[in-house]
UniProtKB/TrEMBL annotation:
Domain Alpha-L-arabinofuranosidase B arabinose-binding: 38-169
Source lineage: Bacteria, Bacillati, Cyanobacteriota, Cyanophyceae, Nostocales
Domain of life of the organism encoding this protein: Bacteria
One Pfam family cited in the UniProt record for this chain: AbfB
Protein name per its UniProtKB record: AbfB domain-containing protein
Length: 176
């Protein structure tokens, strides 16, 4: 069987990082190579990662507030330059991070704990190699996933619901 995978190096503009991984060629066309992104749920195609009241969730996007809340600047990981951190586009200085296993938006207080909690490693999608999954930097067996429309980090499992809930598509940002 011919291997249709290749190595794609994503260099996000304005970042001193490169993300290299073996993924399906289709991701090359669908992944924006820029420093701002919006993130669509793999199995809820009209739902996007966003923050609301400083908590992470997935929801449909309709208003300008929704568009701002669902746009993120991809930064070099606060705890590791081999990974990334997601800074809110409409609340500069605030990052997606996990706390008590729930994803929330917090101001960067420069503590080691926040830096570790706000750092995620981009991996090939757990449910589809043409997408991505976000592995927790400080809990490497945990991935961001949506559950009941809220965002959490949960431990890896081969359960198909988990694999689908922990897979996302990077798309052009709603706002910059």
């Amino acid at each position: 069987m011919k291997n249709n995978l290749f190595t794609l190096a994503l260099t996000l503009s304005a970042l001193p990082i490169s993300i290299s991984t073996s993924i399906n060629p289709a991701i090359a066309e669908s992944t924006p190579v820029e420093s701002a992104v919006s993130i669509r749920a793999f199995n809820l195609r009209s739902y996007y990662i966003r923050h609301r009241n400083l908590l992470g969730e997935v929801s449909p996007i309709s208003s300008s507030l929704d568009r701002g809340d669902a746009s993120f600047r991809v930064r070099s990981g606060l705890a590791s330059s081999n990974c990334v951190s997601f800074e809110s586009s409409n609340l500069p200085g605030y990052y997606l991070r996990h706390q008590n296993f729930q994803i929330r938006l917090d101001r960067n207080d420069n503590t080691a704990q926040l830096k570790a909690d706000a750092t995620f490693c981009i991996k090939p999608g757990l449910a589809s190699l043409t997408n991505v999954s976000f592995q927790s930097y400080n809990f490497p067996t945990y991935y961001i996933r949506h559950r009941n429309f809220k965002l959490y980090i949960d431990p890896y499992t081969t359960n198909s619901l988990f694999l689908n809930d922990a897979t996302f598509t990077l798309v052009a940002p709603f706002t910059r």
